[in-house]
Amino acid sequence: MRLIGLVSVGALVAACSGGGGNGTGPGEEKAQPPVVAITPADGTGKAKPEQGVTVQATLGELTGVKVQLKGKEVPGALSSDKKVWKSAGNLQPDAAYTVEAVAQNEGQTATTTSSFKTLKPSSTFGLEYNIPWSGQTVGVGMPIVLNFTQPVKDKKAVESALTVESEKPNEGAWYWYTDEQVIFRTKDYWDAYQDIKVSGRFTGVKAAKGVYGMKDFNLKFKVGSSNISTINTRTHRMVVKIDGKKKQDVGISAGKATERKYTTTSGIHVTMEKKNPETMISPGIKEGEPGYYKEIVPYAVRISYSGEYVHSAPWSVGSQGRANVSHGCVNAPPAFAQWYYNQSKWGDIVDVTGTDRELEFDNGYGYWQKPWKDWVTGSAFDKSVSTAPGQENAPAAPDTATTTTPAESPTT
User: Fold this and answer.
1) Per DSSP, what are the bridge partners of residue 278?
2) What is the CATH number of the domain that holds 265?
3) What per-residue string of b and e applies to 260-269 under the rule 16 or more CB within 10 Å gives b?
4) What is the CATH number of the domain that holds 182?
5) How far apart are alpha carbons 165 and 175 in whole angstroms?
6) Are residues 233 and 354 in the same domain?
7) At residue 42, does pLDDT exceed 70?
8) Around 388, how many Cα atoms within 13 Å sit in the side-chain half-sphere?
9) What 8-state DSSP symbol labels residue 257?
10) Catalytic residue among 236, 269, 311, 327
11) Residue where a domain stops, chosen among 117, 145, 179
12) Which residues are in the L,D-TPase catalytic domain (predicted)?
């Protein structure tokens, strides 16, 4: 029995010993190669542009990621722990991408590759027109108006793609007037003499179901001198200040106010266009009917959609500075009107007081009429943004072609 017991113990010891010296030794494990996951997955044919590219090292860490579109690298960022790389911004719709990721783990290196395609949108969106146009010099009250080719349902996605930068920082907010139009207004007037840049990173942005942006845009314009005019319809005076200095103080004649349509609107107007001469026809009155007129008016500067202008009126010189006799326009002395016309530009301020007809905020560029707190609620995010330089901008793109918005018939 003893002999049997000794043999049994010896056999057990032999069975537990390593054989031939070919193992990893007690407590040792073979190093694992890195493991990398790429999203969208290899072979995907309808990747969503708004989801971008994510490369994740589930074992080990990333040492290099290259995502390419037509031979050009797609920008992205690596997390501080080197575990995750994400592309910056959205992807181009209807495009083919390649991904190459290099990772390391415990001295072992592995390369993972992938290729995929983004979906083809059922429809695309972009800018139909923008105000102001690129390269213009405008006044301190100038808004930024963007009109889209398609209704925007995901306003947060589109607004997130927009940035406004000014050399002299201001506070501003986007206001969605309709699904097709968004307007940017600053809290205070622009500071004079500076460059403004508007960028839209619309590529790959989903504006509505099946509707994506296909290209970015950049708009650059300048703010010139600060031209601010104040008109008091009760004292019949118009004062023009340029860069804070009074340049003109003249008598004028405003709307006679016998009817609402003949009443000059009170409020902060913004100059919209100018024409010399302008043909002014009585709105809503046909030729031969009482009150009909058709006048050829020189040096006309428009300040509202409802037909109000500051213009030369040699026929009412006797009333200027004394009485309001116009059909709603601001009638001015010929010499002053010519001077005012020559120095005015798109976006100058004309602040009118003294009447009981308030300028509607959407009558021309009367956006300053809406209180700031109410303007901000028109943002998809219900908040304002800074125009301070240094924000991330879209890649350079051709400036967008523009048109103007049709206006109503002018008055005199």
Assistant:
1) 297
2) 2.40.440.10
3) ebbbbbbbbb
4) 2.60.40.3710
5) 17
6) yes
7) yes
8) 4
9) -
10) 311
11) 117
12) 227-353
Q: Note if 311 is an active site residue.
A: yes
Q: Over the stretch 291-330, which tens digit does the pLDDT of each residue have?
A: 888 999 999 999 999 999 999 999 999 999 999 999 999 9
pTM: 0.86
**What gap in Å lies between CA 66 and CA 380, rounded to an integer?**
34
* Residue 30 within any structural domain of the chain: no
- Cβ(221)–Cβ(137) below 8 Å: yes
305 located within any domain: yes
Is the confidence at residue 397, as pLDDT, over 60?
no
Query: Could you say which of 74, 100, 117 is where a domain stops?
Result: 117
272 and 354 housed in the same domain: yes
Asked whether residue 135 falls in the same domain as residue 218, the answer is yes
Q: Which domain holds residue 189?
A: 123-225+370-386
DSSP for 2-32, please give it: HHHHHHHHHHHHHHHS--TT-S--TT--PPP
Q: Are 350 and 310 a contacting pair, CB within 8 Å?
A: yes
236 is catalytic: no
Whole-angstrom distance, CA of residue 280 vs CA of residue 261:
15
Average pLDDT in the chain: 90
Spatial neighbors of 52 by CB under 8 A, at least 6 apart, are 86, 87, 88, 89, 90, 91
User: Do 90 and 49 touch, CB atoms closer than 8 A?
Assistant: yes
Q: What is the DSSP letter of 50?
A: G
Q: List all residues 6 or more positions away from 367 whose beta carbon is below 8 Å from its beta carbon.
A: 143, 175, 183, 185, 270, 361, 375
Residues 352 and 232 reside in one and the same domain: yes
Radius of gyration of the chain (CA): 34
Structural domain count, the chain: 3
Does one domain contain both 221 and 248?
no
Q: Would you state the pLDDT for residue 28? A: 60
Same structural domain, 353 and 245? yes
Report how far residue 297's alpha carbon sits from residue 200's, in angstroms, rounded to the nearest whole number. 40
In a domain, 20, yes or no: no
Q: Which residues face 166 on adjacent strands?
A: 196
| Domain identity same for 305 and 293 | yes
Residue 388 exposed, middle or buried by CB count within 10 Å (0-12, 13-18, 19+):
middle
- Same domain (yes/no): 80, 183: no
Residue with tokens 């405008």: 138
